[in-house]
Design brief:
The chain has an eight-stranded antiparallel beta barrel with strand order 1-5-4-3-2-6-7-8. 55% of the residues lie in helices and 18% in strands. A hairpin with a 2-residue loop joins strand 4 (69-77) and strand 5 (80-86). The chain has 15 helices and nine strands. By secondary structure, it is α+β, with helices and mostly antiparallel strands. Helix 11 runs antiparallel to helix 12 (399-426). It has helices at residues 51-54, 94-99, 101-104, 170-181, 192-200, 219-242, 248-265, 272-307, 318-342, 344-358, 370-394, 399-426, 428-466, 472-499, 502-509, and strands at 3-14, 31-46, 58-63, 69-77, 80-86, 110-125, 131-144, 153-163, 185-186.
């Protein structure tokens, strides 16, 4: 992986010859220090149908300046992007090619625009000389390199203000206020490339074949909007998972589960002959990602348990064995995740999801009014959850109840996600149901985590015993997990009662 820089910047329109206003005194700015003019030559790359640009991702090879090389930028939030850099080379480095794989899917990446920028750089510093932001005035010449507009050019001048590391983002608000007073306005384009493409080939759009969208307010429109959000999240998080960013695997798994859930809940809206095979592939991907995430959760749980044991009851190298076990499992899981994301099966699934959106298999119910259709679907999921909870509670404590509670947990997730998807149509009743079912899901999730923890503790105890170590502490932890499970089973009827009230169901129907 290349060097990573979190870029927080704002862009502004500037007429040729625009002079910079005096920024002295703005939020602690003591002076503006000229740093000279840099000549930058950047060639931006994309697929012929601009798949990177469609996701606000930019890829460029730039010479000149103090950071020449290959750069790929991913949007993080308004005015915030992560820039991953790789050394200058003739061809796209493999590390960056991997990060854009979920977008380009094997399609060739070609030069689409060349931007020559004459950059006049100024450092905004405080009384102690600490850098607050870098301000630059860029005179840009853009040339289109591909498509119908190949050879077309455009020129403009813009101002960029990039926040320095560890400076409060509110500083940019103060600078913007001073610029606005001088008649400088925010740019209408998120990036130089976006402006270059718009001005050298106005009106050009990637060729797509998309079926006519369902009418507003229909069940089909609501379901497809939810499906589109989850697919977008899966594609967006692919590079974050590859970069091993915090919580990226968990967030992608949640999007996968939400998508699987709505495909099941919406079987009267989307043809299951098409969606069932997609659901099976999503289940596969979620399971592959789960190897790492589930182990991460389990290891954290066991380490907390060890921290809660009195020192006199820690017999043997308990923490050391647990940490070695955790490190070995993490390394193997990480390699497997990257291999899965690089695999043809994953890329084929992403193409299938694109096809689902381009030509959704809508059934007649998709044209019905959303509220009534989605309320019926949510209540059906809720009935399934009720049956599974009651079945689990009817069983005696033990293996069979553990399995039944795990099945109830799956039903709780599905009901919660269905309620979330239906919220635009059903409003507050769907929100309340989702919140109360989430409490049931959390309790059942804690219970299942305890089941998995007991299995791991037993295995660790066996290995410790085989190595001649005391297994006492492992047994102690196992017993505490059993006690915790019993408490959760005792709480379940009370938590379920809040999520199964007749009032909630009546509100959904009304």
């Amino acid at each position: 992986m290349g060097d990573v820089k979190r870029e927080i910047e704002r862009k502004y329109e500037a007429a040729p010859g625009t002079g910079l206003p005096d920024l002295t005194g703005v939020a602690g700015t003591a002076r503006s220090v000229p740093r000279g003019v840099a000549e930058l030559d950047a060639v931006y790359h994309d697929t012929e149908d601009f798949r990177l640009a469609a996701g606000s991702v930019t890829l460029r090879r730039r010479t000149g300046g103090d950071d020449e090389g290959w750069h790929v930028k991913f949007p993080v939030g308004p005015h915030v992007r992560d820039e991953i850099r790789a050394p200058l080379s003739d061809t796209l480095p493999d590390a960056l090619a991997d990060l854009i794989r979920s977008r380009v899917r094997g399609r060739p990446v070609v030069p689409v625009a060349r931007l020559l920028s004459s950059r006049d750089v100024h450092h905004l510093v405080d009384d102690e000389g600490r850098l607050l932001a870098e301000l630059s005035v860029d005179a840009v010449l853009a040339e289109r390199l591909t498509g119908d507009g190949a050879g077309a050019t455009a020129e403009w001048t813009e101002i960029e203000v990039e926040l320095a590391d560890d400076v409060d983002p509110a500083y940019l608000d103060a600078v913007e206020e001073r610029l606005a007073a001088a008649g400088v306005r925010p740019s209408a384009d998120a990036s130089k490339l976006a402006r270059a493409l718009a001005e050298t080939a106005p009106g050009e759009r990637p060729a797509q074949t998309v079926r006519e969208a369902p009418a507003p307010g229909t069940a089909g429109e609501q379901v497809l909007a939810y499906v589109r959000r989850q697919i977008g999240t899966i594609v967006t998080l692919d590079p974050a998972v590859r970069r091993d960013l915090p919580d990226a695997v968990h967030r992608m798994r949640v999007a996968i589960r939400r998508l699987r859930g709505i495909l099941k809940t919406g079987r009267k809206i989307l043809d299951r002959a098409v969606t069932d095979p997609i659901g099976a592939e999503l289940k596969w991907l979620g399971a592959e990602l789960g190897t790492a995430r589930d182990h991460e959760v389990l290891e954290a749980r066991l380490l907390r348990s060890v921290d809660g044991v009195e020192p006199t009851l820690l017999l043997g190298p308990v923490r050391g064995r647990l940490e070695r076990w955790g490190a070995a499992e993490r390394a193997g899981a990480r390699r497997r995740i990257v291999a899965v994301l690089d695999g043809e099966r994953h890329l084929a699934l992403l193409d299938t999801l694109d096809a689902l959106l381009a030509d959704p298999p809508l059934l007649p119910a998709a044209g019905e009014e959303a509220a009534g259709t989605l309320a019926g679907a949510v209540l059906k999921d809720h009935d399934r959850l009720a049956a599974r909870v009651h079945h689990a509670l009817d069983l005696p404590p033990g293996h069979d109840r553990d399995l039944a509670m795990h099945e109830a947990r799956k039903a709780a997730k599905r009901t919660r996600y269905a309620s979330e998807a239906a919220r635009p149509a059903l409003g507050k009743p769907a929100k309340r149901l989702a919140q109360r079912v989430k409490a049931v899901q959390s309790l059942l999730g804690d219970h299942q985590d305890g089941v998995v923890a007991r299995e791991a503790l037993r295995a660790l105890a066996v290995h410790a015993h085989g190595a001649g170590e005391s297994a006492f502490t492992w047994g102690l932890l196992y017993g505490r997990e059993e006690e915790a499970a019993a408490r959760l089973e005792h709480e379940l009827p009370h938590v379920w009662a809040r999520a199964s009230g007749a009032g909630l169901r009546a509100a959904l129907k009304s």
